[in-house]
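so im writing up the methods section and need the Toxin-antitoxin system antitoxin component (TIGR02293 family) record in one place, dumping it here so i stop losing it
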Amino acid sequence: MNEPDQLHRVVELLGGSRVFARAMNEPLDAHEMLLEGLPGHALTHLIENLRILPRTASLEKAVGMSLRTFQRRRDAPSRVLSLEQSGRTWKFAEILARATALLGSQTDAEQWLEQPAIGLNQRRPIDLLSTPAGVEMVENYLERLEYGVYA
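--- predicted struct ---
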């Protein structure tokens, strides 16, 4: 998937024009917005539009926020996320968008995130998203899958 398509897909997963006041046409726009903090609506939109991925501890670690904190934040949706929460939420949406493009549907991408992967030493991709090193492993694995290298 080319860069503009990837950026558009990530923005849509986070709520698109319903959530973001300004258009994001290039990665620098996303960078600037992440520095300011993602709107709380973005995380709410992302989580509420997951098709099969359960709201589990794994998802909480992936986006850097406990379910309890998320529930409290729903009462103040206009509050922006912290820099770390914004970055982790964006990265989760980016990986979900990339897996969706590769596997053909968001449902398949969510299932893939939940299944142990041979190329990740039988780890579930969702579990690796809690650290920068794990995120890099998942991104590298997705790249290998894109090029047909499965192990």
